[in-house]
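pasting MFS transporter for the record, 409 residues
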Amino acid sequence: MSALWRGRALAFLGVVLVAFSLRSAVASLSPILAEIDSDIGVPSWVAGLIGAAPPVCFAVFGVVTPVLERRFGLQRLAVAAMVIAALALLGRALAPEAGTLLAATTVLFAAISIGNVVLPPLIKTYFPDRVGTMTSIYSTMLAIAAFVPPLVAVPIADTAGWRLSLGLWSVFAVMAVVPWVATLRRSRRTAAAADPADAVEPPPPPRVLGRLFRLPLAWAIAVTFAVSASSVYASFAWLPIILVDLAGVSHSEAGALLALFGAMGLPWSILVPLVITRWRRLGVIYAVATTAGLVAVAGLLFAPSAAVVLWVVLLGTPQMLFPAALVFMQLKTRTHEGAVALSGFAQSVGYAVAAVFPISFALLSEATGDWTGPLMMIGVLMLAAIPAGIVVTRSRTIEDEWEQRRGAW
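structre below
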């Protein structure tokens, strides 16, 4: 651990705090939405837009962030994202009516989207020799921040009011600003001391985002991200209802099983980056994720009540593709601009699919009157990981692929 920290403690702290802020800001609203509604009134259409905002913002700003990074740089963008997130969190807590709540939430998710894109390249920049370890820490913090706010949001809202329950998460966003500001100032001083010319902003790197649309490797990583994100969004939206209808569990049992599904992301967040970076077992990750997902779908279709806990555990296993995609955004690039562009591209495509998948899931269920079609949709989604895994397991980067196909990067 000393080698990990030496000279990089601020960057380490910055990664941890930004990661926690990214997910806690999302997870802290829905548990107390009823309390907010009883106070200021939140129409159903506003609640629906708030629910749809995260994947939509993540998809849009996945494309926008590489453009902003070329202008401002990674550290500045990380600082700006956390400052905006802190202000939006306070604005959400102070919202006098539903329209302001929606506007502040949208701005918040835009800032979070930028943070999502810049963190993998920041890890690649500051910890090129510890990509697996740092991605494991990063994705683990995301998983922790997904279940901690729902545990404490309601008790705090009951004792101190919903505004404090929402606003307290801005503290973590403010804390996340500090190490990156210090890191940025240190970088400027170091560059100026070495050579005053180095302190001048470098010219913008070449535009590479557009190139990724023509690279199978970039699409494979985007599909990997989409499979994980889409299955998670669909499951959080509909799995309890499916379990009640098909397996005959009670509503309280379905809620507990959904919590089990969500908890499956934590061990994979720790293990998968290390498996990929230390043992290079990329194919194993795809094989386990795809097989588990398909077996879970088959179980829910043909014997839903026979082993419902097992089906939920297996359905949660493809979440391992999420930390895998985060690692690939770093390992499958040689250049700084390539890492930023790949992070933006993969997250934009992945979250765009994740935004429409639960809606399509619901429409198909309504059209057919049962859950067979939607569950088969998940099965087809899992199958999409097979060709993606074949492409990703090849030993090449996006720069290698471009040079092989088009010439100089």
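Confidence is low (pLDDT under 50) at residues 196-204.
The radius of gyration is 21 Å.
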